[in-house]
Design brief:
Chain C: It is found in: Cell membrane. The structure holds three protein chains of three kinds. By secondary structure, chain B is mainly α. Chain B is built from eleven helices and no strands. Chain C is built from 13 helices and two strands. In chain C, strand 1 and strand 2 form a beta hairpin. In chain C, helix 4 crosses helix 10 and helix 7 packs antiparallel against helix 10. The chains are: A alpha/beta, B mainly alpha, C mainly alpha. At the A-C interface, helix 4, strand 7 and helix 7 of A face strand 1, helix 6 and helix 12 of C.
């Protein structure tokens, strides 16, 4: 009996320990809670929200933008519930098509993915992302012609000296075959040529790290991921910047899409409209390294046909 | 002479191996802790991550990890203990029992990614829940059940027969005996096992990528209702745990201090796992001392 | 605790007492309910295993039955291009990558792990139990993401600078995995070595054998099935590991070409592509088939372990 009671004391101790962890957490709650409260107080004009939860699932590249926009949207519209989840463009498109998600985030046109009923989905282009070939700063080359780029990525050119650089082996850093970034880069920078096998990573952060640290490495990144550790190459002498992309002088860019099944309604519509306001486009979109969709001077369809706006 | 030399050489080599292993661990821990040390302050531990700017914390992720742990244990412990009781007390020696044993082995050797994919298929897609904490907890339950069953069974079997017999002799039913005599005596072993399993829950990422998701909604830590999407306690919301956060920040982080955040989060994760390990060890020793101190 | 030796007699008495007293109806239902609950819990384990097998198999097999990919081509071709025209579904590079990296990890970890096991059971049991064992158990607790992260920041650059190669390689994956499976091998092997009867050691020593000769010829010999079990257990862990490996092997989809060449594994192939593909498409199904292969491998590992276990019992 004595032992039994001791066991219970022991149990209580563990319980207390767990409770301690728990209370440690509740103690830290005020900090995160303050922010929404503050933002809520300055939400003057509150449009009506249906309060129906909206889930936006898909592209991990687009996720930070949608998350930030959702945060701002919910701060303005008390009662609105928007859940943002990653999972990848494929997941986003399948879930919106099956009705599991309200909005499917995708890096590519639904038409480009096999097995998606693209005609049932309504496209909302919310931002533009530019992409550029990236090399480590030690590489002396600043510019490549499209042919040179194709030759490098198809494995024909394997040394930087063949394109005017120093004598250094070229290491390809690639994306998996299913990646939207790969699809865009291959379509507009490599004219759809079959790429040679190289190091393969899905995530932009890892790709950047590998390019930065591996001498002679070349890969491609969305412009938002460029920092001091990697260098963007010009393509045919054209720099990948906002001006050249909005006018399509620099062709390697893609839309960020948010698909709905049928026309958007209720909070989903309000949210999508909110993302297209200047408030999001000029601030969050730019801050995260995307280009505002509203700045684009051209339009491009799923087949890649470009028309002036 | 040659044999003696061999003996000497073997001792040296084996000692070197031991030193190498200890050195590796110390180096590993030292590296992780030294990289993340400067991030370890209250602000980092409590503030939410920032998507755009530097200076974000890991508050919600830390909470998610702990909450997921509690949820997983709430589901896994009763099931594990129940199955452990069956295996130790009831299971007849026949083909069915063997099949159950085989199932436990299969479960414990399943790659975590397979469990994650199963979770994706069943808990995420088929139930229509989407990525949820609850789905994550179920996947982790699948993961930890074999360990808990085994630990429970061992602990129950190690309870002296005399205790069981004494209870049965008093006319107490078998089930009562199990619940009120054998189980309490086996508790220390079960708790040690549970704490070790907790460490695994805390560190698991591959299975959670596909079940609990990689995002955390804006949490309102003043809202404790179970069904509001911003409530931290709502089990049907997506949740990113600390281990998943390290993975995500490393791979997709856009903030200038992504590397710092990953370093800090890794240090926190390591410290948490160390705590789990040490407390399991300490608890085991403490109970062992209590049991053997001869006070009864 | 002091009545431990009152054998059979008490037992019989207690049985009789139990029979006499449990006639109470309420107690009976309680007994049955309890047993049922316990049975359900145990049954659940079986259900979980069966449903995992069923779901993964039903998804994984559709590559062959719905999409019409030949099973032989899937396993033996080395061209992986599910979105190409014509598409190709050869997963041989992934399979071989998984096997090679697992084998390499076992090659590195087995001598170290068994060496450490001998050290802490035979050479310095005191130090071994107090320091080495806890240290090794701590290695188990370190999350795989952290292993991968450290591998990416320390190991890959180290290999690159030392050998003037890419760094992302079979070797890097093997080393990271070796560290991860070391604890499994060590603790299981240590248990096996400890179980060797002391008499055997004494006999050998009495015959004038040195300590090492005793360990090598007698102890290890009789602990061999146990040590093999340890290695196979470690390998089954290595085969299914995903994130840590993916961060350091480079994931190049081609047949493994050498220690310093990047490789792909089944797990990395799945994690890299699963989120980007559409459910129900042949590409996505092919990934599920790869998961099915992983599942099949863990069944095979279990069968090997069972055989080893039987051998151990026979000894």
């Amino acid at each position: 009996m004595k032992k039994l009671s001791k066991m219970f004391i022991a149990l209580t101790c563990v319980g207390a320990l767990l409770a301690g962890c728990g209370s440690g957490n509740t103690a830290q709650t005020p900090a995160p809670a303050q922010q929404p409260a503050k933002e809520q107080s300055n939400s003057g004009s509150t449009p009506k929200t249906s309060g129906e939860p909206v889930t936006a699932v898909g592209s991990t590249a687009l996720q930070p933008l949608v998350e930030q926009a959702a945060k701002d949207f919910m701060a303005k519209n008390a009662g609105a519930q928007i859940q943002v989840q990653g999972g990848g463009s494929g997941t986003g498109l399948s879930q919106v098509a099956s009705g599991a998600a309200t909005i499917g985030n995708s890096d590519i046109f639904a038409e480009e993915k096999k097995g998606i009923p693209a005609n049932e989905l309504v496209d909302h282009k919310v931002a533009v992302v530019g992409m550029a070939a990236a090399v480590s700063p030690q590489v002396k080359v600043d510019n490549l012609t499209k042919q040179q780029l194709i030759d490098i990525f198809t494995g024909k050119i394997t040394n930087w000296k063949d394109v005017g650089g120093e004598d250094m082996k070229i290491t390809l850093v690639n994306r998996p075959k299913s990646s939207g970034t790969r699809a865009t880069f291959s379509k507009f920078a490599l004219d759809g040529k079959e790429e040679a096998e190289g190091i393969t990573e899905d995530s932009s952060g890892t790709v950047r790290k590998i390019i930065a640290e591996t001498p002679g490495a070349i890969g491609y990144l969305a412009l938002s991921y460029f920092n001091d550790s990697v260098k963007a190459l010009k393509l045919d002498g054209v720099e990948a910047n906002a001006e050249n992309i909005t006018s399509n002088k620099y062709p390697v860019w893609a839309y960020e899409h948010m698909y709905t099944k049928g026309e958007a309604a209720g909070d989903a519509k309000a949210f999508l409209d909110f993302i297209l306001t200047d408030e999001v486009q000029k601030k969050t979109v730019t801050e995260l390294g995307f280009l505002p969709i509203t700045d684009m001077k051209v339009e491009r369809d799923a087949e890649g046909k470009v028309t002036q706006k | 002479m040659k044999a003696r030399l061999m003996d000497r050489a073997a001792t040296v080599v084996l000692t070197l191996i031991a030193v190498l292993i200890i050195g590796t661990l110390v180096g590993l821990l030292g590296f992780i802790l030294s990289q993340g040390w400067h991030k370890l302050n209250l602000d980092f531990l409590t503030s939410p991550p920032d998507i755009v700017n530097a200076g974000g914390g890991i508050g919600p992720q830390l909470f998610n990890s702990l909450y997921l742990l509690v949820l997983t244990m709430l589901i896994a412990l009763p099931l594990g203990i129940g199955a452990g009781i069956y295996m130790a007390e009831y299971a007849p020696d026949n083909k069915i029992t063997q099949f159950i044993r085989m199932s436990i082995e299969v479960l414990s050797s399943l790659p975590s990614i397979v469990v994650g994919l199963f979770g994706l298929l069943v808990f995420v897609n088929m139930t229509g829940w989407g990525y949820t904490l609850f789905g994550g907890a179920l996947a982790l339950t699948v993961f930890n059940l074999p360990l808990l069953v085994r630990v429970t069974e061992d602990a129950l079997r190690n309870v002296p027969r005399s205790q069981k017999e004494a209870s049965l002799a008093l006319g107490i039913t078998k089930w009562r005996t199990i619940v009120s005599v054998i189980l309490p005596a086996a508790l220390p072993g079960i708790i040690t096992g549970a704490i070790l399993a907790s460490g695994r829950v805390f560190g698991e990422a591959a299975a959670l990528l596909f079940t609990a998701g990689m995002s955390s909604p804006n949490l309102d830590f003043t809202d404790f209702s179970l069904n509001s999407t911003t409530s931290p306690l709502n089990p049907f919301r997506p949740a990113e745990t600390l281990a998943v956060h390290i993975w995500k920040v490393n791979s997709e982080g856009l903030t200038p201090d992504a590397r710092d955040v990953a370093d800090g989060a890794a240090a926190v994760l390591i410290i948490a796992v160390l705590l789990f390990n040490l407390s399991a060890r300490w608890f085991g020793n403490w109970v062992y001392k209590k049991m053997t101190s001869g006070s009864n | 605790m002091s009545h431990r030796t009152e054998g059979v007699n008490t037992e019989r008495k207690s049985m009789i007492a139990q029979k006499m007293l449990t006639t109470n109806k309420r107690q009976k239902t309680e007994n049955i309910t309890g047993k049922t609950i316990a049975m359900i819990c145990a049954g659940l384990l079986v259900i979980v295993v069966l449903s995992i097998t069923y779901f993964i198999a039903s998804k994984g097999l559709s590559t062959f039955f719905v999409d019409g990919v030949s099973f032989k081509e899937f396993l033996t071709h080395d061209k992986w291009d599910p979105e190409g025209e014509p598409s190709a579904y050869g997963v041989l590079p992934f399979i071989l990558g998984s096997f090679f990296v697992t084998a390499l990890a076992a090659l590195i970890a087995a001598p170290l792990g068994i060496g450490a096991a001998i050290f802490m059971t035979e050479i310095f049991p005191g130090f071994g139990k107090k320091v080495l064992k806890p240290v090794i158990e701590l290695l188990v607790g370190i999350p795989s993401v952290v292993y991968g992260y450290v591998g990416l920041t320390l190991l890959v650059p180290f290999i690159r600078e030392q050998f003037d190669v890419l760094g992302f390689s079979l070797l890097a994956g093997g080393l990271v995995l070796a560290l991860m499976i070391l604890p499994t091998i060590t603790s299981v092997a240590a248990d096996a070595i400890e179980a060797v009867p002391q008499d055997l050691r004494n006999a050998s020593l009495a015959l004038g054998a040195t300590r090492w000769q005793t360990i090598w010829n007698v102890v290890l010999h009789s602990a061999l099935p146990g040590c093999l079990t340890a290695i196979v257990l470690g390998m089954s862990r290595a085969f299914g590991e995903a994130l840590a490996v993916q961060m350091v092997i480079g994931n190049t989809t081609k047949l493994p070409g050498g220690l310093f060449e990047p490789i792909s594994t089944l797990t990395s192939g799945i994690t890299l592509n699963m989120g980007n593909t559409i459910q129900g498409t042949p590409y996505n199904n092919a990934l599920w088939s790869m998961a099915l292969l992983l599942l099949a491998m863990s069944f095979i590992f279990i069968v090997i372990l069972r055989l080893l276990g039987r051998k151990r019992l026979a000894k």
